[in-house]
Amino acid sequence: MTKKVAVIDLGSNSARMVIFGRTSRLGFYILGEYKMKVRLGEGAYEHSGIIQEDAMKKCFGAFVEFRKILNRYKIQKILAVGTSALRDAKNANEFINMVKKLGISLKVVDGDMEAYYGGFGAARLLKCPNSATTVDIGGGSTELAKIENGKVVKTLSLNLGTVRLKELFYDK
User: Each residue of 103-127: pLDDT tens digit?
Assistant: First the structure.
């Protein structure tokens, strides 16, 4: 029986889930990909870092749908991470606890780790030259990773994202 793993990435703007089948310790193939626009960070940046109730409900609804998909695939392992929206939110634990009731444990990753994961993935999946930099522009933050000889050597996370900048500067 093939072992199955789900990876969930929750950002300020969207939630993405990828389900993998494992062929060996390091061998995986994609069984399904799902992405939902949740806008968890919407309104938070202009309200002192508080996730707004409507945004929380909408995002929780996406996790309810993810749970249904996880059940259909009979997933054995779930790796779920929250990035900028949860990292910055004063009430992040409220949302994390809601999702935990669905049997999904969300781990909040710091900006440098988020940048590292992006750089690591790019270095493994793309034909990178000896030296490269990845840039991941999200809703709440932007992460950069410097890659040299296939290894991430430096990371940087900036609190500059599309949702954050729009709320703090454009909407005013």
Answer: 999 999 999 999 999 999 999 888 8
Within 35-169, residue ranges assigned H as helices are 53-73, 84-88, 92-100, 111-125, 162-165
CA distance 25 to 19: 16
Q: How far separated are the first and last CA of the chain, in Å rounded?
A: 55
Both structure tokens of 115: 């940048």
Who contacts 15 (Cβ-Cβ below 8 Å, separation ≥6)?
Answer: 8, 9, 35, 36, 38, 40, 59, 62, 63, 66
44, 123, 146, 149 from 130: Cα distances, Å: 40, 10, 11, 5
Closest CA to 4 of 96, 103, 82, 72: 72
Answer whether 0.85 is exceeded by the pTM.
yes
Task: Give the alpha-carbon dihedral of 109, 110, 114, 115, to 10 degrees.
Answer: -170
Give the integer Cα–Cα distance in Å for 128 and 79.
Answer: 27
Q: pLDDT by residue (tens digit) across 131-143?
A: 999 999 999 999 9
Phi and psi at residue 95, to the nearest 5°: -70, -45
